[in-house]
Amino acid sequence: HSIHQIIKEASLIYCLPTTPLQSFFQTNKLSVQESIYGYIGWIFAQHFLNRLGSEYTSLVNILDSSNSNHQDVLSKMKKRLRTDTFTRDYILEIIKTYPELVKLLYINFAMIHYVNPAVNSLTPTLSYQRLRTDTVLTDEELYEKIRRTTSNSHELMVFESFLIFNKHVLKTNFYQPTKVALSFRMDPSFLPEIEYPTKLFGMFLVIGSEFRGFHLRFRDVARGGIRIIRSRNREAYSINLRSLFDENYALAATQQRKNKDIPEGGSKGTILLDVNQQDKALVAFEKYVDAVLDLLILGETPGIKERIVDLYKKPEILFFGPDEGTADYMDWASAHARERGASFWKAFTTGKSQSLGGIPHDTYGMTTRSVHQYVLGIYRKLGLKEENVAKLQTGGPDGDLGSNEIKISKDKTCGIVDGSGVLYDSEGIDRSELARLAENRLMISNFDISKLSPKGFRVLVDEVNVKLPSGEIIDDGLSFRNNFHLNPMVKTEVFVPCGGRPESVDLQNVGRLLDADNHPRFKYIVEGANLFFTQEARLRLERAGAVVFKDASANKGGVTSSSLEVLAALSFNDEEFAEHMQVTADHIPAFYQEYVKEVQTIIERNAHLEFEALWREHQRTKTPRSILSDDLSLAIVKLNENLQQTSLWDNLALRKVVLEEAFPNMLLKQVGLETLMQRVPENYVRAIFGSYLASRFVYKYGTEPSQFAFFEFISPYSLKAQQ
C-alpha cells in the first residue's frame, strides 16, 4: 500500500505542486490527498455554490421574460449576487477554518473512488492511514456533522458544495498512479434548471497547475471546439474566472443550435490559464487532453494507468475541434490519442493539418463561407451593390474569420479592430494592403499607414495621447480599441463581428449603437463571432429596425466542415484514408481537392437554405430573426430526434434514398452507399438520416407547418423508394 500510496501522492504533487492549502500538509493537519481534495473542492465551490437563493427564483417567476428591462435587472442582480456573496478568498477562509471537515469529506469521496492497490506493503503513508482509521460517516451523518460544526449558513453552504461534488463525480483520475492534471467526469444533474434550462448530457472538470477548465456537451455524440482563455491582468482574470462556466455553457448551447445540419450535437471545452501562466497555453492544452483521455480510455497498465471506479458504466468518446488559441494543437491531440491506444484517434480532433487528413477551416475559409452567404443574402434581398456598402469588422487579418472575410468580400471596409488596435478610414481602407495582411495573417499593426486617406487613422493598444485627424485626443489605446464598435464616429451600414469577447454588446451598452432618434447606427449585422451580442441586445437592435442574423445561424460553416472531415475518416479504412485524404509536401490527392470543394458547396447551400427560411418566416410572422433562428434550430433538433425513433428508418429502401441525398457525392462515388452504411457506425448514420430530413423539412415549411406538410414533404422520397 505504501509504495502505491507514495506513487499516487507524488503524482498529485506533480499535478498541483502549490495550492493555498499547502501549509496544512506541511504541518501535518492534512495529508497530501486531503489538501489537494480540499483545493479541488474550493475550485468547485467557486463555480457552483448556489448564491442566488430562493428569492431570485421567485423574482424570475414574477418578472416578464420578454421585457428587456426586467431581464436587464435580473442580469445585473445575478452578477452582483455571484460576485459579492462568496468571493474566492471568503470561501478559502471558511475551508481553512475547518480542516477536520475537509478530512471527513475526503473520506466520503475516497470510499467511492479509491481503488485498493496490490496487497504487499511497507508502512502506510498518512493519507492511507487516515483512510483506514478514521470513522466513515454516512451522507446523512456527514451532513449533520457539518451542520453542527459550522457556525453560520454561509459556512454550511460552502461544505454542502463539497458534498454535492462528492455525490456527482462519476469517474476521476485522482487515484491514477500517473497523471499530468486532475479530471472529473461529473453528473450535471446538480445544476439548477432556472439558470441552465437545457440539461447537459455530460460534464468534465479538469484542473492542472497552469489552468482549470471544463468540457460540456448536450448529446452523447457531440462536436465543438476547445478554447484557451487568456487574461491581460489580475482584474481580467477575476472576470474570466467568474464567467468561465456560464460562458462555456452558453458556447456549447450555441454549438448545439449551430449543429442543426449535422449528425452531432453541441459541445465546447474551455481552458482558463491562471493569472501567472499566460504563456503556458500549449502545456495547459496537452495536460487537459491527457487528463480527459484518462477517463475515456480503459487503464490496463498496472502502476501506470490502472482501472478506475466508473459509475457511468458506458464507453464515451469526445470530439475536439479548434477554437480560439488551439487551432495549432489539433495534430498533437490526434497523435497523442493514437499513442495512448485510443481506437477513435482518427476522429478525435478536427481541424488537423492536411498531412493527417484534416481540412483546415482557415485555409479554405469554411466558417467565412457561411457568414458571407448571409451578407450576400441581405444585399440580394435589398438590391444593394456589395462594392458600395461600408463595413466595420472586428477580428483582424491575423485571424481565421477576419482574414477570410477580407479575402472573400468586395465591400468598402472602413474599420477593422483586432488584438493590436483600431484601423479606420471613412473613405475605405486600401484593399490591396488589407489583402497583403490577410494573406500573411498579420495584425493591423503591420498596415502601411501611408495608404490611409487624410481622414484615416490607426491607434494601437499600447499607444497613449494619440491625436486623430479630427483633432480628438485618444488617452488610452487599449480602452479605445475595446469600445470602438460602440463609438459613434463609426459610420458604416454593415457590421460583421469576426472576433472579440463574448457579450461585447449587452443590454447595458447596446443603447450606444442607437442614434439620437433611436435608429440603429448599423443597419445590417451578421454575427460571425460567437456570442458577440447577448440575445437581449440583438432584440433591442431588431426593434429599432436593424437586420440582425445571429451567430448560431451565420457561422455554422466551420462545424459542418469538421463533421464532413470526420465522416471521411469513418468512411475509409486506414490505407484508403492515407491514399485519398492525407496530403504530402509534393502531392494533394485528387479526391481531397474535389472533396474540399464539395464541402464548401454544402456549407454555402446550407447557409442559403437557412437564410431564405429566416427571411421568409420573418416576413410572414414579424418575429425577430434572433428568435426565429433559435426556433428553427430547436424545431430541427426536435424533429431529428423524433425521426430517428420512427419506422421511417426501418424502411430500408426509403433509408437508402435519403442517404443517397445526405452523403456527399464524392464519398458515394469513391466508397459506395452499401460500404458507407457498413463502415460508419449505425447511430451516426441514423443521425445523418434524421438531421438531413429534419433540416430540409423545417427550412422548407418553417416552424409551424400544417398537419399535412410532412406527408407532402416525404412523398417524393417514398415514391422514389418504391421504384
UniProtKB/TrEMBL annotation:
GO terms for biological process: L-glutamate catabolic process. InterPro entries: Aminoacid_DH-like_N_sf (IPR046346), Glu/Leu/Phe/Val/Trp_DH_C (IPR006096), NAD(P)-bd_dom_sf (IPR036291), NAD-GDH_2nd (IPR056365). One of its GO terms (molecular function) is glutamate dehydrogenase (NAD+) activity. Keywords: NAD, Oxidoreductase. Gene3D superfamilies: NAD(P)-binding Rossmann-like Domain. GO terms for cellular component: mitochondrion. Residues 358-622 form the Glutamate/phenylalanine/leucine/valine/L-tryptophan dehydrogenase C-terminal domain. Signal peptide: none annotated. Belongs to the Glu/Leu/Phe/Val dehydrogenases family. This is NAD-dependent glutamate dehydrogenase. It comes from Linnemannia gamsii.
